[in-house]
Amino acid sequence: MFKELWESFTDALEGLGSVVHFLFRLVVHSPSALLRFNLISQQIFNSGAFSLVIIMLSGLFVGMVLGLQGFQLLQRFGSEESLGVAATIGLVKELGPVVTALLFAGRAGTALASELGLMRATDQISAMEMMAVDPIQRVVVPRFLGGVISMPLLAAIFSVIGIYGAQLIGVQIMGVDSGSFWSQMRSAVGLKDVTEGIVKSLIFGVACSLIAVYQGYYATPTAEGVGRATTSTVVTSAVVILFLDYLITAAFL
Amino acid sequence: MRKSRTLNLGTGSFVLLGFAALFFLTTQTTSRGLTWFGPPRYEVIAKFDNIGDLKVGAPVSMSGVEIGRVAKIDFDSNDYKAVVLLRLNERYNKIPTDSDASIYTQGLLGGKFIGITAGGADTYLQDKGQIDFTQSAFVLENLIGQVLANFTKSKADEQQNSAAPADTKSNADTKSKEKTK
Hints:
The complex is a heterodimer. Chain A is 89% helix and 0% strand. By secondary structure, chain A is mostly helical. In chain A, helix 3 packs antiparallel against helix 4, helix 3 (52-76) runs parallel beside helix 6 and helix 4 (83-121) packs antiparallel against helix 6 (135-173). The longest helix of chain A has 39 residues, at 83-121. The two termini of chain A are 42 Å apart. Chain B is an alpha/beta fold. Chain B has an eight-stranded mixed sheet, with no helix packed on it. The longest helix of chain B is centred in the N-terminal third of the chain and has 27 residues, at 2-28. Chain B is elongated. Chains A and B meet through helix 2, helix 6, helix 7 and helix 8 of A and helix 1 and helix 2 of B.
């Protein structure tokens, strides 16, 4: 019993170690991959531009819910004008990066993992190795960098759409004064809040893309293995994102 | 070729949209960003005895219209006053030199802002000029103290209290004199 626990603990540690090792390999290969920007641009298109619709729709609805809930709550204290501040702080610092990262893991992370897993299962990766093409450099690093670049942009788009969603409900429907909505937001939101959001989304981007490409690259080369890699990408990403979110928030306080 | 062109176009517009969103977040939702690309400005200082919790970035208004922002707050150790640097919009450059700057509160418990009331002089404030007439922040604790002092005083001596000057501006001065008595 104790021995099994110890073994599962060392297994987890070994997994973590190999993820870190994999990250180092990706970072080492990144500068040379940046020279072939076409590959990265293609991946930005795949994981970024294709996630745009879901990100924008979710951002709109999250912002609208914030507007509605914030209005109901703030109305009790007679300070509906603070709705802009509440919605913006919530979106820029927390909801923007976190929800975008979760959606990104679901939309783009799974696609990356299953694509790489299928490449492994159909021996495409071994074929590349046979032809002396480094699959890490040719296939994995562009996908990783594409995700890292897309994530902060997606999070920023999410926040902006969300702010307009909150404005739509608060100002257009509930009748909060438009001027005080924006001016209170401007006086209360600092550059530090925006920076925190950007740093968060960058780190989430690294985490999400790393988990996705790692799970895909080391997937068991069977149909079942690919499926499992996809599932564990979403699960691991979600847990890691929320854990990192707490750490970064604590570090910024 | 055709396909790679649409692909690059898609990637390009996505990245552009993303950076536009980042730009919006840094300049439109924060007070800091507005001054980067704002209209031309000039700077004026004002010295206050007490600024309360006035913050950098607080609005400076005249007749309720925002004409600038607080750019810097410093402490002058020679005459023990707070030195507030106001960055005003160049458009409003006809502020008489004898204008008076006061610190007000937005709402009951809101943030502080500076209100400027125009004087009657013919000369106008220039860049690096100074507003000489200032009125300190209204600190809630002091007011409560004054009200309590008034309350106990009015019980002891109602006559003197009713004879006290009514205008609010000299009120603070007489109160502080009363305290020193």
